[in-house]
Design a protein that fits this description.
The chain is an alpha/beta fold. It contains 11 helices and 12 strands. It has 2 domains: 122 residues, no CATH class; 228 residues, Metallo-dependent phosphatases (Purple Acid Phosphatase, chain A, domain 2), CATH 3.60.21. Strands 1-12-2-3-4-5 form a 6-stranded mixed β-sheet. It has a 6-stranded mixed β-sheet with strand order 6-7-8-9-11-10. Helix 10 links the parallel strand 8 and strand 9.
Length: 359
């Protein structure tokens, strides 16, 4: 893990050097230090967010978090823009003069990135409603509407007012049951507790259950459990809850040691089996255990293009509906997200599952 983090940091610094060199080169004389200095200051805010966000007032921390994490997305797209410009210049498709001491070149590059960030921020605010109907031959007490969502990442950036809007969307479905697939909390309980976010969850007019995600492992899990209890959420920790003919199996996340085998948790169950497992790894486990439906999140589907290409390579299924044998899956790109509130080529969503049993 440490080697991977060091390698990733080295890559980020190398790319930052590439972007800084291009900014220096493309900026007209007299403005070079200003433009490169502002970029480095913006970059510093990203790293400062990891080091100091817990030691400053929550409102200031929220600003630092959003500003710093927006840099990461802007930096990535600046690198892509300059890389494409370099290739186009080598192929004589772009005048080299546009990449050196050029106000037009500078404003073009910055304008493209600013447009991407703006459109991505607007796109993130729209929450997609995905509906899936499953008919099972297993008996249910009645047809059920189950709302499932993952990766809320509430905290410094997804604040209480935004959480309240999401809870309104969930209540509008008039669900029989609500399930959260992990990463409810982003990386800190301080804004969540100080802002009384639990009040919003308590407005849900249905039983609520959840599992932990990898981001909950960054926080004292005892305190996370206390928050979820205060929010009226039943936490499933390698456990099963029977609900109107549905056997809801909640798994510990892979980031927690010693989680139980899915086959052991599902042994002897006769109802419609619905698994909550935060990370969509080893999907064959659910198929082998005879699970009817599994809901996962975690991937965010990369959150922004072209990172979505990477998640497609890393996971058997990184987003959307999937089927293996008799097991159906839905891998959610998440209702919220980590970092900057920008989505490019992906979407924020929740799932409405209509479940009907045999007569």
């Amino acid at each position: 893990m440490r080697v991977g983090i060091i390698g990733l940091l080295a890559l980020v610094l190398a790319l930052a050097g590439y972007v800084c060199w291009h900014l220096w080169r493309i900026t007209p004389h007299g403005w070079k230090w200003v433009v490169v200095g502002l970029f480095l200051l913006w970059m510093a805010s990203f790293f400062a967010g990891f080091m100091y966000v817990e030691s400053i007032p929550v409102k200031a921390a929220s600003v630092l978090y959003e500003v710093g994490n927006t840099w990461l997305i802007a930096f990535m797209y600046l690198a892509i823009v300059f890389f494409i410009a370099d290739i186009a210049s080598l192929c004589h498709l772009l005048p080299k003069t546009l990449l050196k001491d050029s106000a037009l070149g500078l404003f073009s590059a910055l304008g493209i990135v600013a447009l991407i960030l703006t459109l991505g921020a607007v796109h993130y605010q729209h929450k997609y409603r995905e509906e899936l109907t499953i008919t099972t031959n297993k008996p249910l007490e009645k047809p059920l509407t189950i709302v499932l969502a993952s990766d809320l990442h509430i905290g410094y950036h997804n604040r209480k007012a935004e959480l309240g809007r999401w809870m309104d969307l969930i209540n509008a479905e008039k669900p029989d049951l609500v399930l959260f697939g992990g990463d409810i909390v982003d990386r800190s309980l301080r804004p969540v507790n100080e802002g009384h976010y639990a009040e919003e969850f308590r407005r849900i007019d249905a039983p609520v259950m959840a599992v932990l995600g990898n981001h909950e492992s960054f926080v004292d899990t005892t305190r996370v459990e206390e928050f979820l209890q205060d929010a009226g959420i039943v936490l499933l920790k390698d456990s099963v809850v029977h609900f109107k003919g549905v056997d809801v199996i909640g798994r510990y996340d892979r980031s927690f040691a010693g989680r139980a085998a899915l086959g052991d948790l599902a042994a002897g169950l006769r109802g419609f089996t619905l698994v909550l497992d935060h990370q969509p790894s080893n999907l064959e486990e659910a198929e082998a255990a005879g699970i009817d439906f599994q809901f996962s999140g975690h991937t965010h589907h990369g959150q922004v293009w072209p990172v979505s290409w990477l998640t497609d390579l890393l996971y058997e299924k990184a987003w959307g509906y999937y089927r293996k044998g008799g097991t159906q899956y839905y891998i959610s790109s998440g209702l919220g997200l980590w970092g900057a509130k920008v989505r490019v080529g992906t979407r924020s969503e929740y799932l409405v599952l209509r479940l009907a049993g045999k007569e």
